[in-house]
Amino acid sequence: MVTGLWAVLVAVPGQLAGWVVDQIVLVAGLDRAVAVWPVVALVTVLLVGAPTLALALIPRSPAIRATGRAWLAGTLVLGALTLLRALPPVHHEAYLAALAATAVVVAVVLDRLTHRRGSVAPGRDGAAAPGDAPAASAPAPGSATGDAAGRGGATAPDGPDDGVAPAGGPGGRLGPVTLLALAAGLASLLPWVWVGALGGASETLLAGLAAAALGTLAGVLLGPAFWAAFAVGTPPRPARLVLVGGLVAGVTLALLGAGAGQSGAQLPALLLLPPLGFVLGTLEAGARHAGRPAGRGPVRWLVGLALVGPLAFTDPEEVTALLATTRDVPFWVAVATGVAFAVAVLLAVGYGVLLARSRARAPRRGLAGLTAAALLAAVVVVYAVPGQPGLHGERLLVVLREQADLTGIPAGAPGRAGRDARAAEVYRRLVATAERTQGDLRRELGRLRLQPTPYYLVNAIETDGGPAVRAWLAGRPEVARVLVSQRLRPLPAAAPPARGTVPAPTGPTWNVSLIGADRVWSELGVTGAGVVVGSSDSGVDGRHPALAAGFRGGDDSWYDPWEHRRTPADRGGHGTHTVGSAVGRNGIGVAPGASWVGCVNLDRNLGSPARYLDCLQFMLAPFPPGGDPLTDGRPQRAPDVLTNSWGCPPVEGCDPGALRPATAALAAAGILVVAAAGNTGPYCGSIADPPAPYPDVLTVGAVDRARQLTRFSSRGPAAGGAAKPDVVAPGAGVPSAYPGGGYATLDGTSMATPQVAGVVALMWSANPALVGDLDRTRRILADTATPAGSPADAPCGGARNLVGAGLVDAYAAVRAARAADLG
């Protein structure tokens, strides 16, 4: 048992360590470490394989050899399956297909090896070798032989694939032991159908196939030859089969579970599969007491159904630290795993009690069948009522080759009139291009019932579809590329809404004073009146006392593409905080006299390319509730400056150029896009996720109270060597509004970004002729910025890629804006 403990102590921490590395890399914004899982596989095979190989080869008792062979095979299986995690998580269907195929191939190979060992002579001690067809599988004299025995006929010995034991009915019907295993598997599945949700059609089908293949593989690892080694005595002693055989089977299943799923999905299997070894031991003991071994059928059903839960009802990309701060997917996966573990333990105990009370009588097939049927009905009811029925897979964003030509748009008159004219012309060209180029593809997708949604800010279409549809779309001549547009699966219950707990400030907050915004109010009499700031974020608490008066109002100032709420609201709090820093009253906002409009592009702290486009389109041309963005947009109602404290990393489906046409179009319309640099410092080149690296975006880094660059603030250069960020602002310990009427103090470039948007609002309020003049506005911000501290050795190509032009100075910028000659 020391070897088994060693195997578990190597495999489990290895899997946890691999997942933690994945999460660290994800949170840090680094490139995915593809070599992590091959290294984990190699280390596990080397450390566990050697002692298990010794057990398999040393000529001791058949039980020890069977133990070594099972654990060695399990270790090799774990190594092979772990290698599959080199596939990117975003291609989950490809991973599941590879998992199913690999499991089947390994099962066939191991099955042939088992049959080859079964043809050799018995061991030296006269007992059957682990691969032999054991004499213990024959019915004991005077013992029951299952259902057939009750009808006067003896049953034939089980073959290696027999799933109708010990009471296999005529015509290959499922026997009582297999039905009990089926019932146990359905019981293990119940927690997952309650808290989980299925992905897309192809994803769900492949997950089911992968679970079935892994169940088949488990049937080979824990087949009749394995249990025969622990079936000592006539009839066999149940305690040895249940306790010793079950323990060995549990370790084997732990090794199998460690490889069953993409990074994150295997963690539940590590906990819920091992107790099932004792359930299998109990079923085997009952079958052998009834006259014949159980065969592989019970193992297949039990393990396969148990693995359907984590493979089909969770998305491994959502088992992430990014969602671990609230009661989100990681919490519910932990709940399902804990309940499934408890179910497995109760099954082991319950079946053990039934075995003890049966006194070697065969389980009744009718009762076992009713139990399985009742649990199947329970699974259906739980899935349909408290569960999350339906398919919730990712969608595809099809980016077309032709993008709108926005060159030669007249500058028009200075100020808002000219900006509105440019915005209208940009909107017209974008929509015309989308309508002209998307027609054939949209009709084809509609004919296939793939629910296409057109976009114009980037000429693209979002649609349903799995790998086959993606391959078909990628081959069409009008398509440039196809991105995965992530969609979070629903939860059984929404996380508690965020609430502010910090008291309201009694005057201008430290960050507002640091950049001189309070001096702008008191000395220059400018508060941002007449300027509209647009926020795309988690939402806004529209009833917050610091924000309610600033909402622009009307039927085109709020859009929620996730939940379609008609009034401003915010579950997460991030968006309320950022809007507060831009335009909040009570001393928290840089431009408290400005108005705001809002859009929800983050759901539970994650977004997708399509949702980001939904909000950016709304900012270019707002539309009323239920309106069509392509026909009902109102570019004359576009906000003046946009604050964007988000980025679209590859895990959400974006590639580096995914949103490039969108920001270019907004710039052409005279709408200034201000974006957070990101919180992936101190690594050089970490300003990578759209839209922060784009040249037409004003990118903002973060400093602390001492005007020093924060460690978390992302650094440049951006792709192609472009210098980023453009400026920095306070981003460490920033107080602002939070849902529920309270306040909170947060860190991040997310907190710095809205302050710069607020400074722009002050500038344009002081000189309305500057509205829409993005080049001159950016120059004034850069020319009036003050020095900000950065590392002495100035890595990343110099201070320009650390703090940009420096710390934004609201007072100096507004004075310069007032004095600007726009002739």
Automatic annotation (TrEMBL):
Domain annotation Peptidase S8/S53: ranges: 528-789
InterPro entries: Peptidase_S8/S53_dom, Peptidase_S8/S53_dom_sf, Peptidase_S8/S53_subtilisin, Peptidase_S8_Ser-AS, Peptidase_S8_subtilisin-rel
GO molecular function terms listed in the Swiss-Prot or TrEMBL record: serine-type endopeptidase activity
Residues the record marks as active site: D537, H574, S750
Annotated GO biological process: proteolysis
Transmembrane region(s): 34-58, 70-88, 94-110, 179-199, 205-229, 241-261, 267-286, 298-314, 329-354, 366-385
One Pfam family linked to the record: Peptidase_S8
Region: Disordered, residue numbers: 120-168
PROSITE patterns xref list: SUBTILASE, SUBTILASE_SER
Entry keyword Hydrolase: yes
Keywords of this entry: Hydrolase, Membrane, Protease, Serine protease, Transmembrane, Transmembrane helix
Compositionally skewed regions (Low complexity) per UniProt: 121-165
Family membership noted in the UniProt record: Belongs to the peptidase S8 family.
Protein name in UniProt: Subtilase family protein
Originating species: Micromonospora chersina
